[in-house]
Design brief:
alpha/beta, 8 helices, 6 strands, Rossmann fold
């Protein structure tokens, strides 16, 4: 995730809009994404602990600012909730780029359970999905990233597509001990009653 945020910082132009879903997408980008100019360039869904906002928020930004690059970032859990809206974005001709942080889990839930329950988690895993293939089947662009070296070119390719959405499916760690942004979250000792999020 840190590498992805670094690539966003390097690749997105100053006039770009980054829309961040709740969960890890908003958490990591809130910590590590740097806006380059004043104004509404970073629009996170924070404070309500909701997910599913990334894609529809990106559609809204794309319709409001069709001349600017729009990138929406969502986890796979949040993206699953709004996957059907890719059809809406395609029909509306929104050329937004949607990054799906694919950890095959409700990642925030899994990481917190792992930290709070001694390495255990329950009901947090999702089926492995190829969101790039799903996007292509829906008539959108789709790029699957398993090598971080391909991130920059995929972001550029997505932003160059101006007539339809492009989904960039970024495969990240499945290890819940590595998911939380912290100095070293494996060393955190959480006791019953601690508020960690």
């Amino acid at each position: 995730m840190a590498r992805l945020c670094r690539e966003l910082n390097k690749t997105l132009p100053a006039d770009a809009i980054l829309v961040a879903d709740g969960g890890f997408a908003g958490h990591w980008t809130g910590l590590l994404y740097d806006t380059k100019t004043p104004g509404r360039h970073f629009i996170p869904d924070r404070g309500f602990a909701s997910i599913g906002y990334g894609l529809p928020g990106g559609i809204g930004a794309c319709l409001a600012a069709p001349d600017r690059p729009v990138v929406a970032i969502s986890g796979d859990g949040g993206f699953n909730m709004m996957l059907g809206e890719l059809e809406t974005a395609r029909r509306a001709g929104c050329g937004l780029t949607v990054i799906v942080v694919n950890n095959a889990a409700s990642g925030y839930v899994k990481a917190l359970q792992h930290a709070m329950m001694g390495g255990r988690s329950q009901s947090a895993d999702l089926n492995e999905m190829d969101y790039a293939a799903i996007a292509r089947a829906m008539g959108c662009g789709g790029i699957r990233i398993e090598d971080p070296e391909a991130l920059s070119s995929a972001l550029r390719q997505g932003m160059e597509e101006r007539d339809r959405p492009t989904v960039i499916d970024v495969v990240v760690t499945r290890d819940p001990a590595q998911m939380l942004p912290a100095v070293d979250n494996r060393a955190v000792e959480i006791k019953r009653g601690d508020r960690v999020a």
